[in-house]
Amino acid sequence: MKSLLLSALIFISGVLFSQEKNSFVAIGSGVSIPVGNYAAKNLDYGCFTTTGLNFNIEGAWFFLPYLGIGGQVGVNIHPVDVQSLGWERVQADPFLVDVTIRSDSYQMITGALGLYAQWSFWKKLSLQGKLLGGMMWAKSPYQLHKPTYFLVETKWFEITSARDRNLAIIAGAGLQYDISRYIGLKLSGDYTFSKMVFGFRSSGETRYENRDIGFVNVNLGLIIIL
Question: Which class is 2-81+107-140+166-225 in CATH?
Fold first, then answer.
């Protein structure tokens, strides 16, 4: 994580010395919407995630008026739908009467580099696109379960969080409005995808779960035009 932040700061510092018309540094935040298997309510391949939050910082240097290279670092937090998770566990176990679940959120950190493109089409408005590749660091939630079985004493048990990292891709587009020569606003949408393998220790053995991580970020960002 320290190496990733240091790389991002070095990159942004380099961008600050650029005087290209479309080069920029931006800070954004917004909603993060899980999609695909990551949002699925299925015990075998789903994560039961719901809409969360995203925070990101990005920058790009344009070596042509319409094409540049840049990078992005983002953090995503996705809560777990514990009601749906509990319902599916009850349906899957004929001896389980009810279950109470307390869960943390899934946490993702993504860092990526790649190509940026920008087209000005009306006065201060421009359309921006990007295609990036990099790494994702993921942490599954810590959970407490309190199952209720027929004629059996109820006890809490825990599922500890697990971590993994893997390659990630980001594809996005945004609409930028220049307030002045140096400041702008951008409304953007990004799709991020990666594959994770979470390992859980139980009774001296490790159980692995393969999970597809996919989400769409819808952000509003403040842009410093360089």
Answer: mainly beta
- Are the C-beta atoms of residues 88 and 112 closer than 8 Å to each other? no
For the chain, domain boundaries: 2-81+107-140+166-225
62-83 residue pLDDT tens: 999 899 999 999 999 999 999 9
In contact, 46 and 209? CB cutoff 8 Å: no
Burial class (CB in 10 A: 0-12, 13-18, 19+), 153: exposed
Q: Which amino acid is at 162?
A: A
Residues 6 or more apart in contact with residue 60 via CB below 8 angstroms: 15, 22, 23, 24, 68, 69, 70, 71, 116, 130
Residue 153 pLDDT > 90: no
- Give yes or no for a contact between 8 and 25, defined as CB atoms under 8 angstroms apart: no
20 vs 127: CA distance, rounded Å:
17
